[in-house]
Amino acid sequence: MNWVNICEETALPGFGGVAAWFENKAIAIFNLGEGGLFALDNIDPATGVSVLSRGLICDLEGGIFVASPLHKQHYSLRDGSCIEDESLSVEVYQIKCENGKVLVKSAYDSADNNS
Fold this sequence. Notes:
By secondary structure, this protein is mainly beta. The chain has a single domain, classed as 3-layer Sandwich (Rieske Iron-sulfur Protein). Helix content is 0%, strand content 46%. It is built from no helices and twelve strands. A hairpin with a 6-residue loop joins β8 and β9. It is globular, with a radius of gyration of 14 Å. The C terminus is likely disordered. GO terms for molecular function: 2 iron, 2 sulfur cluster binding; metal ion binding; nitrite reductase (NADH) activity. InterPro entries: NirD, Rieske-like_NirD, Rieske_2Fe-2S, Rieske_2Fe-2S_sf. One of its GO terms (biological process) is nitrate assimilation. Keywords: 2Fe-2S, Iron, Iron-sulfur, Metal-binding, Nitrate assimilation, Oxidoreductase.
C-alpha cells in the first residue's frame, strides 16, 4: 500500500470539510486543526448522495462525528459508524499531512495500478 497526494494542506478549510476524488470515488476530508485530519466516504449511505463533506462536525457521546446535511444521521470520523442506525456506516481512510501535502493511504499496491 502507498500514500496518494490529494492536495496541499493550505487548500483545506479549517474546521470544515471538502470533497476529493480518490481511487475512482469521492471522499470527504475534514480538517479539525489540532484535532487532526479525517477522511471517509463522501456518499451518505442513507440516501446514496455524495454530501458528507458538507455536513456539520459535532462532538457527541465523547466522539467526533459528521452530521449528514440531508437526514442528519451522525457518522463517526474515527470508525465510520452511524449513531442512529447500526446498519449504516461509511468507510474511513488513513490520512496524514507530510511536508505540506495531504496524503491518503491507498488500498492498492503500486503494482496493481499498472494493470
